[in-house]
Amino acid sequence: MSDRPARTRRAPERTAPVAARGPYAIVPVPRLSLDTVARRSGLHPDLIRRFVALGLVDADRDASGRLAFAPTAPADLARIQRLRTGLCLNYASLGLVLDLLDRISLLEAALRRAGTRSDPPPWT
């Protein structure tokens, strides 16, 4: 007999499947440049930079340091402009309104998945 303790067998480490670890794109997701977003949305690039600084629109930096936007950015900017002109909101309050609208959308989607309705049933 040796003085060394008996080795215990370690269970193999389990890792989550790739789909559970996080979203990975099979192909690169196209990104839009600031000029492209400005042209498609009809807004000045400086105003779009201000929206990025306020956190109203998401943007990343590419390898050269320029802003890169998701393909949905022109639609997001149009939504911001509609809210600003339709409700007479300033840019600082738009962030709160956008967050609330996104939260409402998530809650309504959860209700739809659960099979319940958010509006009251008809009285007849």
Automatic annotation (TrEMBL):
<dbReference type="Pfam" id="PF13591">
    <property type="entry name" value="MerR_2"/>
</dbReference>
<protein>
    <submittedName>
        <fullName>Chaperone modulator CbpM</fullName>
    </submittedName>
</protein>
